[in-house]
Design brief:
The chain is built from seven helices and five strands; from the N terminus they run αααβαβαβαββα. The protein has helices at residues 2-30, 35-42, 52-57, 68-73, 91-100, 123-131, 158-164; strands at 62-65, 78-84, 109-115, 139-143, 149-154. The chain is elongated, with a radius of gyration of 18 Å.
Length: 166
């Protein structure tokens, strides 16, 4: 009986904590804009922030939101899908590093940000996660021109991304 009480109290604490973190993450992610919307607003005013299609046509390495058109424009480049969640404490620093250091992404490399498991996840993002068997955020998948998986890894910063490319 003593152990059952301890287990019940533990479950109540875990359930309360889970609900708290879920509600905090929902409110934080609801206030964040989708990367495409930010790119469209800023494209005219900030030369570093371009629409995905404009970025791909320049022939340099880029970090951009995933779209089918941007993916197709990256033909011949090494393509990496970064499965990101707005609420993920591991994803946020990597996203910030990639956004701030696009000049350090090697020419011929396109890193696509794919929303995974948050309020910005759309049908295309969900389909990509399912296609590549993504089970949690902060996963990177290098794919070829036809979208076939070349390699997959979890975690890492820009240096690890570049060193993991095949």
């Amino acid at each position: 009986m003593k152990y059952a009480s301890i287990i019940i109290v533990g479950l109540v604490i875990l359930g309360t904590a889970g609900f708290y973190f879920y509600s905090q993450n929902q409110s934080a992610s609801d206030s964040m804009e989708k990367p495409e919307a930010i790119a469209e607003k800023s494209a005219g005013s900030d030369p570093a922030m371009k629409k995905p299609e404009e970025a791909m046509m320049e022939g340099s390495g880029e970090y951009i939101p995933y779209s089918d058109s941007a993916f197709n424009l990256a033909s011949g480049k090494k393509r990496v899908l970064f499965f990101f969640a707005n609420w993920c404490p591991i994803c946020k620093p990597v996203d910030a590093q990639l956004s701030a250091n696009t000049a350090k992404i090697p020419e011929g490399v396109a890193i696509f940000r794919v929303n995974y498991n948050d309020s910005d996840t759309d049908a295309t993002d969900k389909a990509l996660a399912q296609k590549y068997g993504i089970t949690y955020q902060h996963t990177f998948v290098q794919v070829d021109d036809q979208g076939n998986e070349i390699t997959k890894w979890n975690g890492g910063d820009l240096d690890k991304i570049v060193s993991s490319l095949k």
